[in-house]
Specification:
The chain has about 140 residues and is mostly helical. The chain has a domain of about 100 residues: Helix Hairpins (Orthogonal Bundle), CATH 1.10.287.3610. The chain has five helices and no strands. Helix 3 packs antiparallel against helix 4. It is extended.
Length: about 140
């Protein structure tokens, strides 16, 4: 059995020396790294920018729809899931490219699986918006005619 570390500064055999463990300071660092990741995605990931161009108006418009709070949270959640999965897909692609830019079937498979995950998230979002917001939008336009 591995002995536990004798102090918080001493990492155990199963703890990476690259991970910080300094309590409250870690929260600030984690926030900074997360914001750097979002900035990177906006700056360098075209797919993320395209999805944001749909997500931002959808999230703003959502609050004007006469839906229950639960329905609004579900719709907001589906939009966020697409963005989250796209960030994970971008991380997979960056990692694969970091390991090697050489074409390899496993590299292609990893990238294709990440892309498939994004597709499924987009399908989920689309279905949720059609089912929950669709009837409201149809009634709105029908009333205008």
């Amino acid at each position: 059995m591995t002995e536990p570390p004798s102090s918080p500064e001493q990492p155990s055999a199963t703890t990476s020396t690259l991970k910080s463990t300094d309590g409250v300071g870690r929260i600030g660092k984690a926030l900074r790294y997360s914001l750097q990741g979002l900035t990177h995605a906006i700056r360098y990931e075209a797919a993320f920018r395209q999805e944001l161009m749909v997500a931002i108006p959808a999230m703003i418009g959502l609050w004007f729809l006469p839906l229950s709070m639960v329905e609004k949270i579900v719709l907001l959640g589906t939009v966020l899931i697409v963005l989250i999965v796209e960030l994970l897909n971008s991380a997979i692609e960056a990692t694969v490219d970091r390991v090697s830019t050489e074409r390899h079937p496993l590299s292609g498979r990893a990238k294709d699986l990440g892309s498939a995950a994004v597709l499924l998230a987009v399908i989920l979002m689309t279905l949720a918006w059609i089912v929950l917001a669709g009837p409201v939008v149809v009634r709105f336009f029908a009333a205008m005619i």
